[in-house]
TrEMBL record:
<protein>
    <submittedName>
        <fullName>DNA-binding response regulator</fullName>
    </submittedName>
</protein>
<keyword id="KW-0597">Phosphoprotein</keyword>
<feature type="domain" description="Response regulatory">
    <location>
        <begin position="7"/>
        <end position="120"/>
    </location>
</feature>
<dbReference type="Pfam" id="PF00486">
    <property type="entry name" value="Trans_reg_C"/>
</dbReference>
<keyword id="KW-0238">DNA-binding</keyword>
<dbReference type="Pfam" id="PF00072">
    <property type="entry name" value="Response_reg"/>
</dbReference>
<dbReference type="InterPro" id="IPR036388">
    <property type="entry name" value="WH-like_DNA-bd_sf"/>
</dbReference>
<dbReference type="InterPro" id="IPR039420">
    <property type="entry name" value="WalR-like"/>
</dbReference>
<dbReference type="GO" id="GO:0003677">
    <property type="term" value="F:DNA binding"/>
</dbReference>
<feature type="DNA-binding region" description="OmpR/PhoB-type">
    <location>
        <begin position="130"/>
        <end position="228"/>
    </location>
</feature>
<dbReference type="InterPro" id="IPR001867">
    <property type="entry name" value="OmpR/PhoB-type_DNA-bd"/>
</dbReference>
<dbReference type="InterPro" id="IPR011006">
    <property type="entry name" value="CheY-like_superfamily"/>
</dbReference>
<dbReference type="InterPro" id="IPR001789">
    <property type="entry name" value="Sig_transdc_resp-reg_receiver"/>
</dbReference>
<feature type="domain" description="OmpR/PhoB-type">
    <location>
        <begin position="130"/>
        <end position="228"/>
    </location>
</feature>
<feature type="modified residue" description="4-aspartylphosphate">
    <location>
        <position position="56"/>
    </location>
</feature>
């Protein structure tokens, strides 16, 4: 007898989007619960304990960002926001509220499924801190504080190393400018250009072509994420 697939709670009020996602998700072995409102989502979340959430921001009886914040008070299950909003501030707010990732509508099923796989891998990973983190040709050895690309050692400044380790520990997950500033420079630093400047220098050292990065990906207006192996996004 095979194990049942991960249980996904889809919170979406548009019938056409729900039909599309129902077909895509269930065809790949996931079990699906559906809610069209914040109230239904809260009820299903507490009665079924989903493994992953797909959450629209615009709901008829409340805001998806507030629902994300409420869910994060008691569950660590991955939350992927499905956003039709054009404002990047909404995406940043959702990620800061506790979402693990976001996908902007319209989107393809393959992109969403790839993001779901990455999010579930993170949730299922051992809580023990790894000593070696790999992403494609990049290797970060935390014990030796050594970074190599395709076997060649790369020399980073202390800030560049902190940036890379933060991204590597969260590979596949979008980190906002605000989150990066707080983790690397401290909670009282607000100058977002620090992130852009040092990220550009880091890319020069680890990317084959810094002008067309394939390891550190920019989420425009939001932040950055390190591409994880198997991430098709």
């Amino acid at each position: 007898m095979t194990d049942p697939g991960p249980l996904v709670l889809l919170v979406e009020d548009e019938p056409a989007v729900r039909r599309f996602l129902r077909a895509a998700v269930t065809a790949h072995g996931y079990r699906l619960l559906e809610a069209g409102t914040v109230r239904e989502a809260r009820q299903l979340a507490t009665s079924h304990v989903p493994d992953l959430y797909l959450l629209d921001l615009g709901l008829p009886d409340g805001d998806g960002i507030e629902l994300t914040r409420a869910l994060r008070e008691w569950t660590r299950a991955p939350i992927i926001v499905l956003s039709a909003r054009g404002r990047e501030e909404d995406k940043v707010d959702a990620l800061d509220a506790g979402a693990d990732d976001y996908v902007t509508k319209p989107f393809g099923a393959n992109e969403l499924l790839a993001r779901m796989r990455v999010a579930l891998r993170h949730a299922q990973a051992s809580p023990k801190e790894p000593t070696l983190i790999e992403a494609g040709p990049l290797r970060v050895d935390l014990e030796r504080r050594a970074v190599t690309v395709s076997g060649s050692e790369v020399h980073l400044t202390p800030i560049e190393y902190k940036l890379l380790v933060l991204l590597a520990r969260n590979a596949g997950k979008v980190l906002t400018h605000r989150q990066i500033l707080s983790q690397v420079w401290g909670p009282n630093v607000t100058q977002s250009h620090y992130v852009r400047v040092h990220m550009a220098e880091l890319r020069k050292k680890i990317e084959p072509d810094p002008a067309r990065p394939t390891l550190i990906l920019t989420e425009l207006g939001v932040g950055y994420r390190l591409r994880e192996a198997g991430d098709g996004a």
